[in-house]
Amino acid sequence: MLIYLDANIVQYIADHEKFIFRESLVPKIKSGPLYKELKALRALIEFELEVERLEVANMWHVAAPIHLIKELLSGKPTDNQRKTYSLLLKTWSDSDWQDYIKSSDEQVRLIEESLRVLKLKQATDRRHLAEAIALKASWFLTNDKDIIRKTRLEQNKINVIGDVRVARPSECLRIMSANPSLGWSEHRY
User: Fold this and answer.
1) For 5-33, what is each residue's pLDDT tens digit?
2) Which of 128, 64, 71, 69 is closest to 98 using CA atoms?
3) What is the pTM of this model?
4) Most CB atoms within 10 A, among 69, 115, 118, 142?
């Protein structure tokens, strides 16, 4: 299963990696909506590790297209962020998924154009969602309120945009915990 992490989620992972990867019991942030999403990211990683331990064939893969990495590096990343982004890019480059995925800049451009109707505030958000769709990702995880609000037909109901579920990490965790098979058999080569 392919998961596309929006830039804000990758930054959370880089900034709070000790908590998310269980090297620390306490995150830097101890309450509020961000805390909820950090706990969900931690639980999703634990969930993946448990599935991997059980040797389920269709493990999770995280997309790291060059446009996402460029956006992450365009700011002033800390050394820790830079390390996390490099690791993400290396993992993506080494994955089998690139052998199966046939997305092109033209395809992403056409999808991106069709997403204009969402009227997302940031063009980069539209680009990332278009890449997720072109890559046939199962999930597009974000904490961006604009993306969440504008991709929902009904409030608090996850919508599927071009076969991609757009959700917060906590929503993904809730659905995957209730139905772990959702996504595992969804290789869409």
Assistant:
1) 999 999 999 999 889 888 888 777 878 89
2) 64
3) 0.86
4) 142
